[in-house]
Amino acid sequence: MANIDIDEIKKTAEQIRKDCIWMSTRADFGHLAPALSIADILATLYKKIMVYDPKNPHWPLRDRFILSKGHGCLALYSILSQVGYFDRNLLRDFANKYDTMLPGHPEIKLPGIEANTGSLGHGIPLAIGMALAAKIDNKNYRVFVITGDGELEEGTNWEAAIIAAKHKVDNLIVIVDRNKLQLGDLTENISQLEPLEEKWKAFGWATKVINGHDINDLISSLSATPYERGKPTVIIANTIKGKGLPVAENKIEWHHKVLTKEQYNALKDDLGLEELSNG
Known about the structure:
Layout: H1 6-27, H2 32-36, H3 39-49, E1 64-67, H4 73-82, H5 123-136, E2 143-148, H6 155-166, E3 172-178, H7 187-190, H8 196-202, E4 206-211, H9 215-223, E5 233-238, H10 261-271
Parallel strand pairs: 1-2, 2-3, 3-5, 4-5
Helix pairs in contact: 1-3, 1-4, 3-4, 3-9, 5-6
């Protein structure tokens, strides 16, 4: 575990949010609010919890991370650049040409990406395969997944939940981005998820509910996994969709909406954002 203090993780999360706003405004494209809600989780994972080597992305003993809600990739691109997987200047290429290394959903052509994602419901099944491979090969790496709460309406997640419990993959940690909003409405208005923790328990998982924006809570919860030997772990992280951008916080319409350049420039000084022409 990295010797990183809380303030550094908070600064990293703040930079993720700034990058997400900057990239999406430059491209006039992107799922901004779903990226902003996971900034603290990603900053904690990559700065404190996970074991990896940016100079050797395919190191066999690395921890694996899968962003199952691939539409939140703005945040993932930012953290990967911050920890050294690629040069920050590449962020300017987000979604700006057909062959970009940073498309609207992550692809394995980019260093640090473990799986193409964005077709919802596939991240947990992929992660189970990786976690099982570690068990079979007697390796100690862990597999972390962030899934959206609206994504849990996909039945493949629950099929995977059964399989993970059956095979006792306690090196698998799923983090649910529980921001309670999805593309068109509140999750509970579309397909009732609650009682969400009890559902995961019924599928044989060890569970915990946390504040997904509290760095101390994230560190203590993630470092304590697995909560039960022989059981996969799910952490339900309560978050705010659009966190850090007041105009977007808890707003359904910001699922796939970005700032105009005029809005960006009006907010630039207050939020400490870069000039749009930089980079």
